[in-house]
Fold this protein.
Amino acid sequence: MMKKITSISVCLVGFLVLCTSCSSSDHAPPPPSEAASQMDLGLRYLEDSDWQRADSFFDEVLRIDSTYAPAYIGKLCAELRVPKKELLADLNQPIDEHRYFRWAIRDADAAYKRQIQGYADKIRERFGDAGKREVLTINGIEYAFRWCPPGTFMMGDEPGEVSVTLSRGFWMLETEVTQAMWMSVMGNNPSSNKGLNLPVTDVSWNDCQEFITKLNAELKSVGRQSPGGTALAGYKFSLPTEAQWEYACRAGTTTAFHFGDTLTQQQANFGSRQTRDVGSFPANAWGLKDMHGNVWEWCLDRYGDYPSGAVTDPMGPDRGSDRVLRGGGWYGLAGHCRSAFRYSYDPADRDDSIGLRLSLVFE
């Protein structure tokens, strides 16, 4: 066992210097069009343990096109034999408490520890920060979003669950869309149970598309008006895909609910008489609230069977009329609020238990 640990430690030390600055002049930064091939070449350098050349290539490629960076982290996780989510969680700890890095820094001096910390910060910046909060202000109304990083998870219920990879991160609205948000954009309030901080209800999927179109027109000027505008530049409002919704709801969990295998009325609004103010119940690990209960939430996808094999960035079936609803509602059973539970509904229909939650996706 000690021999194996030592071997991994040596390999890890090599990996840890990959993202540090490199003054090598042998390799100029590749143009964007060549980034993919350079990434492949960099991975070969990793396999050959040619750390200096790998450092040079990866440092430049990551600056030019972060689209290929997931392969880099995937290589690191494969070498360490740990899931990416575990590695990222580890990076949120102080450097001396890192489970996967402490072998490499056991005998390191302070300067080298700082170097490793910089590497950890770079990974966390690109792939971590799950739950990071950004706020947009549109028409005087604040929209708080939480960051959902790229990742892989098991979607749906056994025995029909499917492995889904989301290659790009996205932002998810912290709560359901409120009546105040809807009124500030649409100029009306269709909700049966009125209240500015209550979720908007009685909206069809088609209504939501009109709302989102108008909201995206407003978003173009947000960069000059809102502190969050710069961080969210290049994104647009959308309904989340069904995969994005479940991924965000689970927030790394595999249980029936993000709270565990049971759900109580102290954790979510279900089996009640009406909607409650958004954010009235505890959040999940990524800071998202009311993912269970209160109102059903429209998803972008058409309703249909899941694919039979592993998929990346699924958008639902190409054909079909009904759209997907997720999350459960205020009047329903706890079982309808499960992370994996799905329901279909006509996109033109409305109900006092149906609302929406926005995502921000990169255009």
